[in-house]
Design brief:
single chain, 219 residues, alpha/beta, seven-stranded parallel beta sheet, 16% strand
Length: 219
């Protein structure tokens, strides 16, 4: 698997599950700075320009899955900058991978409220919707859009956001009150691994679908 965003909370959690999972043979992370994780299965490429992969294409061949977890919050960010990071940088890698690895399964971390119509009033939701739609076209029947709501972080990881550390104490409450909108970070990682192995009957996965996929490993 290829993973982006491993220096963020979600990407680090997905990487953690991949390194633990015996079905994952090797992992390549592409980062701007070192993820500071060391494992026999792990390779890392430090890249400054996330729009140009021409110099490393030979290192991106032979992968079965890509877990795209890189992203930023739109809060306080100019619309054009958010579009560049969310859409342009994501598609630059996705187009490269579709060319180099036919049949690759792609999982993309999006978010609850994403606007697939691309016509709504909320800018971030339109941008995410456009990104999702393009990825689905690039990887027919092999692209899965993950739209989690609240994510319970994995204990012990280094990139957990402070807000989640505080809210995490109330996880049993969130799970009881809003079961359809709560999932664990570990479940997101396991769901990505499982959907890469076996597929799923939906392209857009919300929290309940993520949980269902994650627990397939326990059957």
């Amino acid at each position: 698997a290829i993973i982006t965003g491993a220096t963020g909370m979600v990407g680090e959690g997905v990487l953690h599950e991949c390194l633990l999972n015996e079905d994952v043979e090797s992992v390549l992370v592409i980062n701007r700075r070192p993820c500071k994780v060391f494992h026999s299965k792990l390779k890392e490429i430090i890249l400054d320009n996330f729009q140009d992969y021409s110099n490393i294409e030979d290192k991106l061949v032979g992968y079965n899955a890509a877990f795209l977890c890189m992203g930023v919050s739109s809060v306080g960010m100019p619309g054009d900058e958010y579009f560049h990071i969310t859409y342009e940088l994501t598609l630059a890698l996705a187009r490269t991978l579709s060319k180099l690895n036919p049949g690759l399964t792609l999982c993309y971390i999006s978010g609850l409220g994403t606007d697939s119509s691309e016509r709504g009033r909320i800018n971030w939701a339109r941008v995410k919707g456009r990104t999702e739609n393009e990825l689905i076209q690039l990887f027919p029947n092999k692209a899965f859009m993950f739209r989690p709501a609240y994510i319970q972080p994995t204990k012990g990881l280094q990139h957990t956001y402070k807000t989640y550390k505080v809210l995490g104490v109330l996880y049993p409450v969130w799970k009881f009150l809003f079961p359809k909108y709560v999932s664990k970070l570990s479940e997101i990682g396991l769901a990505m691994i499982n959907v890469s192995k076996s597929g799923f009957n939906k392209t857009v996965l919300e929290s309940k679908d993520i949980i269902e996929l994650a627990h397939q490993t326990r059957r």
